[in-house]
């Protein structure tokens, strides 16, 4: 509420504001974590795409299995990795009478009994250069691997990157890798992250709905960007994560869409064109370097790095590092009824922690108008922020620590926001709970 402008403020609210204005909760710094991933430069990722495009152009217009363009693609990626200090291996296989190659790159160090993998297929279809499908995933994984080298990252877990052959023939390369991995080696895989089409021109932001920890790692990253995500539904077994999932390895990944059509609701939240395919050049000759959405490629490349950094830091174990988030905007009525935004907490055991972290992002002018509460699944309210007639600053972007140890962890938790003074409006942008 702005004191300079006389505004209606109920007497009760004035009394509450006066009484509690000094009781605003302390804003806690986010807990110290493993170093955050660096930004992945979009220009670097696009430079790899330019190289892959040149390779296709010089080799009959494609980078398909069994064609010269595929092996040239492998040689390009491998040379970058060798120069960056990786231990690279070419795994050969035969499909359709032609030799295929998987490129495997191990980053020296880390616990050999806990291996985190990230991969993408490097082959295209025969009809085109395959820049979105799947130069985009291959370039993002390559640039993330190079960022690991630049940072001289020394994660708790061992990092392994992979570029698969003959995915377009039916996940042939990744199946060959998993089937030829000794069961003792397979058991060491703590997770496999897959990136197949992450720069679609009419992009959607889809997260694979498989391992919950991997899924939440991606979802909380995009929540931090205030980018809503959806669960990937175009086809569970339709990329290289499928053989790993069948072998019991935790999997996850990102996808920006192929031939399915973007809905009006999706265009509303992501932009782009409703009624049009996410990628109109899917498996076509027009899948060239012009067939990329830079914003989607940049965001997804950064999400790849975030997941690699986060999930390879052995210290972030599920009981303390699981994030439940909601990035759907909720308008807060001016001087009106309270509104809520929910997160469904699952997979926990017992009660919530005594140091439950609630990170909120509420865009609202004159934040003194707002009262913010956390509602536990049983309805118990925990006051995060009181109103204050003197707090004229905008936006509530803060992390609160709540002693929720009396509450059952699993269930629907709600962020409740009420505007108790006329004028100045806003909305819940996103929020998350970290258990
Ligand atoms: N099979 C991939 C593209 C693809 C289609 N649906 C999905 C779902 C999840 C990941 C990838 C895909 C290809 O054509 O390479
Ligand atoms: Ca970036
Ligand atoms: Zn494809
Ligand atoms: Zn693909």
From TrEMBL:
Domain P/Homo B span(s) in chain numbering: 316-435
CDD domains reported for this sequence: M28_SGAP_like
E.C. number: 3.4.11.24
UniProt KW keywords: Aminopeptidase, Hydrolase, Metal-binding, Protease, Signal, Zinc
Example of a GO MF term: aminopeptidase activity
SUPFAM superfamilies, sorted: Galactose-binding domain-like, Zn-dependent exopeptidases
Record keyword Protease present: yes
Signal peptide (from-to): 1-29
Matching PANTHER family: METALLOPEPTIDASE M28 FAMILY MEMBER, PEPTIDASE M28 DOMAIN-CONTAINING PROTEIN
Similarity comment: Belongs to the peptidase M28 family. M28A subfamily.
Record-given protein name: Aminopeptidase S
């Amino acid at each position: 509420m702005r004191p300079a402008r006389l505004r209606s403020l109920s007497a009760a609210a004035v009394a509450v504001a006066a009484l509690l204005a000094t009781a605003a909760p302390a804003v806690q710094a986010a807990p110290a974590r493993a170093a955050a991933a660096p930004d992945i430069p979009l220009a670097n990722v696009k430079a790899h795409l330019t190289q892959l495009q040149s390779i296709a152009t010089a080799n009959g217009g494609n980078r398909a299995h069994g064609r010269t363009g595929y092996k040239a693609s492998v040689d390009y990626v491998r040379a970058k990795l060798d120069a960056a200090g990786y231990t690279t291996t070419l795994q050969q296989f035969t499909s359709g009478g032609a030799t295929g190659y998987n490129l495997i790159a191990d980053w020296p160090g880390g616990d050999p009994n806990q291996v985190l993998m990230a991969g993408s297929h490097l082959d295209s279809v025969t009809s085109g250069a395959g820049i979105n499908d799947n130069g985009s995933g291959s370039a993002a994984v390559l640039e993330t691997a190079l960022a690991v080298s630049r940072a001289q990252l020394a994660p708790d877990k061992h990092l392994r990157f992979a570029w698969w052959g003959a995915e377009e023939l039916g996940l042939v390369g990744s199946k060959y890798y998993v089937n030829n991995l000794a069961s003792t080696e397979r058991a060491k895989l703590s997770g496999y992250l897959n990136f197949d089409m992450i720069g679609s021109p009419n992009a959607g932001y889809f997260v694979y709905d498989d391992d919950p920890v991997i899924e939440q790692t991606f979802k909380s990253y995009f929540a931090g960007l205030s980018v809503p995500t959806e669960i990937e539904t175009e086809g569970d077994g339709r990329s290289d994560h499928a053989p790993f999932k069948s072998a019991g390895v935790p999997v996850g990944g990102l996808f920006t869409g192929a031939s399915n059509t973007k809905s009006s609701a999706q265009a509303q939240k992501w932009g782009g064109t409703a009624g049009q395919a996410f990628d109109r050049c899917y498996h076509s000759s027009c899948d060239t370097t012009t067939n990329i959405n830079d914003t989607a490629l940049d965001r997804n490349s950064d999400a790849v790095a975030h997941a690699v950094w986060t999930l390879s830091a052995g210290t972030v174990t599920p009981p303390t590092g699981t994030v439940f988030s909601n990035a759907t905007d909720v308008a807060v009525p001016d001087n009106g009824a309270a509104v809520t935004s929910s997160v469904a907490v699952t997979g926990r055991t017992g009660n919530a922690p005594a140091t439950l972290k609630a990170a909120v992002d509420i865009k609202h002018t004159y934040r003194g108008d707002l009262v913010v509460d956390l509602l536990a699944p049983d309805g118990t309210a925990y006051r995060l922020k009181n109103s204050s007639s003197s707090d004229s600053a905008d936006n509530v972007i803060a992390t609160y620590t709540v002693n929720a140890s009396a509450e059952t962890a699993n269930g629907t938790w709600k962020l409740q926001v009420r505007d108790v003074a006329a004028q100045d409006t806003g909305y819940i942008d996103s929020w998350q709970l970290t258990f």
